[in-house]
Amino acid sequence: MKAALSRRVRSAAAFLLTALCVVIALVPLLSLAWLVVSRGWAGFSWALLTEVPGPPGGAPGGVGNALAGTGVVVFWAALLGLPLGIGAGVFLAESDHDDRLASAVRFTADVLAGVPSIVAGIVAYGLIVAPMKRFSALAGAVALAVLMLPALARTTEELVRRVPGALREGGLALGIPQWKTSLRIVLPAAAAGIATAVLLSIARIAGETGPLLFTSLNNAHWSLAPDQPIGTLTVQLYNDAISPYPAMQQRAWATALLLLVVVGLLNMAARVVAGRRAEGAHG
Amino acid sequence: MDETVRMAVRGLSAFHRGTAVLHNVTLDVRDRSVLAVIGPSGCGKSTFLRCLNRMHELAPGASVTGEILLDGRDIHGPGVDPVALRRRVGMVFQRPNPFPTMSIFENVAAGLRLNRMAGDLDAVVERALRAAALWDEVKDRLRGSPGSLSGGQQQRLCIARALAVEPEVLLMDEPASALDPIASARVEDLVHELKARYTVVIVTHNMQQAARVSDSTAFFYLGRLVEHSPTAELFTNPREERTEEYVTGRFG
Ligand SMILES: Nc1ncnc2c1ncn2[C@@H]1O[C@H](COP(=O)(O)OP(=O)(O)OP(=O)(O)O)[C@@H](O)[C@H]1O
Ligand SMILES: [Mg+2]
Questions:
Q1: Chain A nearest C-alpha distance from B221 (Å)
Q2: N or C: which end of chain A has fewer CB within 10 A?
């Protein structure tokens, strides 16, 4: 009796403790969301999405060019990073565990995953900006592609490995070459999971600032050109936030809200895709 | 050499990381016949089958010694591409493994499509599905997913998929063991019909099934071929004592 009672007390205490932890963890998150929404909402307008930033001290204008710029940089980053990341993941999954090249790639990916994002910016600066003698959207994209590679490769590897070996054998037994079996039979079976990973990796890079500061730089005008400096939401936000002008600081809050919405939508899309997949697995 | 021998296995040994799991197996598979492979679990039946289409060597650390001749040519010979060999020696697995992202039609067409083999796909798919006795059940939902088929239908789909590339030899590793008795009987009937055009090697745990479908039966024990005889003989009048113990169920 006594033992049972003390067990129940301890269990209740443990529950309370974990509940408290949840609340403590939620406080900064919720206060952040509240701060961004309450401050940003005032600056939220159609003009924010369609206009270019006004001059310092003048009318606020908008960050339409930066929204498009983030789209452009992320597009090029995805174009570079997705095939490389997914391809590397498939390679890792298909190679033997003791394959030397695969071990080297895996090690590189794991090291790369821990590299601070600003370092990716330096790499892109050295590779693209310095030789081209110009900041450009493409340089920013290279930096972001480097950032998305490791997680994408390792997640793809994991997902491809989880595809039942029977499927791979089914392909090989038909006399389909191994690489084609991997790409046409095994990879599609992992496609839903990989789509989720892709969306999450895009959400992650869309919010990066550091590596863009000295690669894509910034641009107060409309530009979609990959070889020109380009405005992005994050760098625009950074510049506005440190400016002394209240109108620009307001614009920074509104941009923060916009960024939160964009990244939130991407994460939600990833969840929807992942949910579909879970449903499909039962069907 | 005997004209009617399709595959000749000569002194075949198979290894997993240096450990022999098949020892010095020698037997002939006659053209347009069904060879049943029986034996207790772990005796090397699957390994034997997977040697015949060189799937065995895909496992890490796996190797073989000895010869396997297909129409008189060593399948390990220098000019033989294992990928091409597998188009001639098809395989059906214990558990149905249709490609889940492809439709029923695409599953059957997969071998031709992904190998860029020529042919009228519609005709080939219909022929293969008819040969696998599945056509009538799926002809109205060829674009549907194989996931909607029953286990027995999925297994016949996999048989159709293997037949579509027109192999000469068909290897079947306990193709009916995951199926209920009715579906299992259909697969058996099918094996009977396939014999007219294909050479079939079938692994089974079911003595009655082996007795019903096969022309000759090979009994394996602990990685060795104990006896290979015409099926009627092996079941009624085995040469070896171990065989008799096994087929009569008096096995320890
Ligand atoms: N990948 C592997 N690595 C190491 N040993 C293996 C491997 N696959 C099979 N073996 C061993 O090889 C031997 C033969 O296995 P095999 O699968 O051929 O048996 P089987 O006769 O098909 O058995 P079952 O009737 O249970 O399917 C077994 O002792 C098994 O443990
Ligand atoms: Mg087996």
A1: 26
A2: N
- Cβ contacts (< 8 Å) between A96 and chain B: which residues? 60
Residue type, A243: S
Chain A residues with beta carbon closer than 8 angstroms to that of B93: 166, 169-170, 173
In CATH terms, the fold of domain B5-247 is Rossmann fold (3.40.50)
Pick A170's closest partner by Cβ from B53, B93, B147.
Answer: B93
Residue B167 in 3-state DSSP? coil
DSSP-based three-state secondary structure for B239: coil
Residues 96-125 of A with CB under 8 A from B: 96-98
Per-residue pLDDT of chain B in tens (252 residues, 90 and over written 9)? 456 899 999 999 999 998 999 999 999 999 999 999 999 999 999 999 999 999 999 988 899 999 999 999 999 999 899 999 999 999 999 999 999 999 999 999 999 999 888 888 999 999 999 988 899 999 999 999 999 999 889 999 999 999 999 999 999 999 988 778 888 888 898 898 888 999 999 999 999 999 999 999 999 999 999 999 999 999 999 999 999 999 888 765
Determine how β-strand B216-221 pairs with β-strand B224-230: antiparallel
Whether residues B114 and A176 touch (CB distance < 8 A) is answered with yes
**Spans of all domains in chain A:** 2-43, 46-282
In terms of Cβ atoms closer than 10 Å to its own Cβ (0-12, 13-18, 19+), residue A229 is buried
Q: Are B92 and B175 a contacting pair, CB within 8 Å?
A: yes
> pTM of the predicted model, to two decimals?
0.83
Specify the fold of A46-282: MetI-like fold (1.10.3720)
A261 interfaces chain B, CB cutoff of 8 Å: no
Q: Residue B137, exposed/middle/buried by CB under 10 A (0-12, 13-18, 19+)? A: middle
CA A55 to chain centroid, in Å, comes to 31
Q: Quote the tokens at residue B243.
A: 């065989």
Q: Which residues of B touch A185 (CB under 8 A)?
A: 99, 101, 110, 114
| 3-state secondary structure at position A112 | helix
Q: Does A195 touch chain B (CB under 8 A)?
A: no
Q: In this structure, what token pair is assigned to residue B242?
A: 């171990």
Closest-CA residue to B173 (of B196, B191, B150, B192): B191
CA distance B53 to chain A (A): 8
Residues with CB under 6 A from ligand 1: B 16, 21, 39, 41-47, 59
